[in-house]
User: Fold Gfo/Idh/MocA family oxidoreductase from Roseicella frigidaeris.
Amino acid sequence: ERVGFAIIGLGRISLEQVLPAFAECRLARPVALVSGSPEKAALVARQCGIRPEAVHPYAQFERLRDDAAVQAVYIALPNAMHREFAERAAAIGRHVLTEKPMATNSEDCAAMIAACARADVRLMVAYRCQYELVNRAAIRLAQSGELGRLRFLQAMNLQSNGPGPQWRYSRQLAGGGALPDIGLYCLNAARYLSGEEPVEVVAQAWSPPGDARFAEVEESMSFTLRFASGFLAQAQSSYGAYQEKSCRLAGERGSLLLEDAFAYRGQRLRLFRREGESGIDQRVQIQPRNQFALELDHMARCVREARRPHTPGEEGLRDQQIMEAIGRSALHGRPEAILPLPADRPVR
Ligand code: NAD
Assistant:
């Protein structure tokens, strides 16, 4: 029997990526919906083969307690709402898979971790790229020593966003602009590719003057993270540039180019290194798989086997703390130290 998920929020990520991905899952299935729109939810339930009685409004979320088919919830609401629904899920004994960014501040992240620990339910942040096979191959290569000592990462997550108003332009609902929404992928990649934690950041934010969308949140955030080994990771994220989602990793003996690293599909990996007298440029072939399905199946396996997810709440909290240091650096125009992880609370 597959692990049953209740889908909380039927916006774009749920409708366009996650619900369709269940068709490619082996261990996870959608069994309930929680939505603010009864007509939309009824239609989606019919399309996905979900029982009409398993569709609930937000106010009646706690009815999931009486539905034995629901073992986990997937939270796909505006960022500031993740905490409330994670705590409500933990309170009725359901495991939590929450979208990224985990929340809008580190206090909320810590509260989510505590609530899930108290209730003894799993908590996973939907860092899909860490389940995507080409990114995983890049991680293996980076950590195999084949590139030599890692020196530089350069990542971009750029897109041209449409007009508002929408929750992404609200500081209260989103927590920030391009950084927590898409710059987060660059930050997370710097950490998972290097396997190291940053110790200091220098950042700059920019918003076009007079653009009402960016009255509260940044349009662009550029940052450089310094790691203890000397590894430097530089990233640009923006809502105001033509789409670019690539990541380059340079080591002393070789480098990687991950094209469309952070896209929903279409990742490509090239490996450059010296061989004998000349350099080689090798395309690494990997059979593609749906990263959303891999992510959902990972959560389902963790629920079944009572295992800690590969991207637990602590991973979301760490990124949030680093994003807060990035924000302070951009605000004050100076380098900001990043506090080390407590020795007794490792991310993994
Ligand atoms: P969306 O705007 O398309 O959907 C948000 C949903 O929340 C809608 O169904 C909306 O009705 C509902 N909602 C409930 N209360 C709301 C309120 N007060 N204000 C606005 N909407 C409210 O957003 P989305 O793109 O689906 O993003 C949802 C979450 O998923 C966010 O946390 C986002 O960062 C994350 N996300 C992740 C990925 C990914 O690749 N992993 C991609 C996109 C979005």
